[in-house]
Amino acid sequence: MEYSEFQENYEESQDESLVSDESSSAQRGKFEVGIICAYLLRGVIYRQDTATLWNCLKEQKNKVHDYLIKLGVKLVLDENEGYAYLRSLTDEELPDVECLPPRLMARRQLSFNVSFFLLLLRHKLIEFDSEANGDMRLVLSSSELVEMMKTFYQNKSNDVKLQNQIETTINKVVDLGFLKPLQNRKDRGEHHYEVMRIIKAYFNAQNVADFKTKLEEYQNYLLEKK
Q: In sequence order, which ranges of 134-204 are alpha helices (DSSP H)?
């Protein structure tokens, strides 16, 4: 599975810098269009993390859109889910000019384990949304994440190796920005992670439905082997 249009330079420190910059910006006034675009080029902007920047983006979204189109990228803003990100223009969307801008959004080829785990998380988010009663934050413990993966690796005999493999996959998904470690939340020494809603932009309902069918086939196969 190819993972594309997600920023290469995603930084874990983004939240802290946004809070600091947002505070100083609130004293000066609203964010300028160029500054908003700079934040978008760094990574996803979430409403829950930075209200001032988010509101400025909404107010100036047309200007931001026009600014970014010249760079060969398009603004995607989902007000219901509370996130905004950039994607590369398709060939059909590119302007009819002789000199096109260089590609800013990186393309990545994901490993099977990472792709598999992302689809598990997306399926978990669908279940959560159907029962959440208005809560938009899905938080899972590290043991819950490990168990999600272990269920589908029943034929692995080396538990230590499997545990390390799963932890590596979790860390990779954190690096990609689909899981956010919650530094201030630890129960019984366990780490907790928020499933970031941007995952909905990359895996739609049809992806998950197809994936669920394959999972059921795989589980039936495991049962037949016993």
A: 142-150, 159-176, 199-202
How far does the chain reach from its first CA to its final CA, in angstroms?
Answer: 30
Q: Whose CA is closest to 208, among 149, 127, 92?
A: 127
Residues 6+ apart with CB under 8 A from 219: 152
User: Tens of pLDDT along 150-180?
Assistant: 877 765 666 788 888 889 999 999 999 999 9
Residue 26 has pLDDT above 80, yes or no: no
Q: Which CATH number fits domain 111-225: 2.60.40, 1.10.10, 2.10.25, 3.30.160?
A: 1.10.10
In this predicted model, what pLDDT tens digit does every residue of 116-147 receive, in sequence order? 899 899 989 988 998 867 788 999 999 999 98
Q: Cα Rg for the chain, rounded, in angstroms? A: 20
Segment of 9-13, 17-21, 172-176 carrying the highest mean pLDDT: 172-176
Instruction: Tell the burial category of 92 from Cβ atoms under 10 Å away from its Cβ (0-12, 13-18, 19+).
Output: exposed
Identity of residue 35? I
In single-letter form, the type of residue at position 145 comes to L
Cβ-contact 139, 192 below 8 angstroms: yes
Domain boundary assignment for the chain: 2-108, 111-225
- How does strand 83-88 pair with strand 45-46? antiparallel
How far, in Å, CA of 121 to CA of 110, rounded? 15
- Give pTM, 2 decimals: 0.73
